[in-house]
Amino acid sequence: MDKRPMLAHRLGVSIHCSPLDFKLKRLADRHAVPQDQLEEWLVDLANHRGARVVERRIGAEPEWPDLPASQLGDEELAVLICQPQRLDHPQILRLAAQLVSKGRLELDRLILTARRERADRILGELARQALRVDPSHPAWNGLARAFAKSPSPSEPLIHWSRLAEPVPHHGVCDGQSWRLVA
Question: What residues make up the domain containing 38?
Answer without folding.
Answer: 7-157
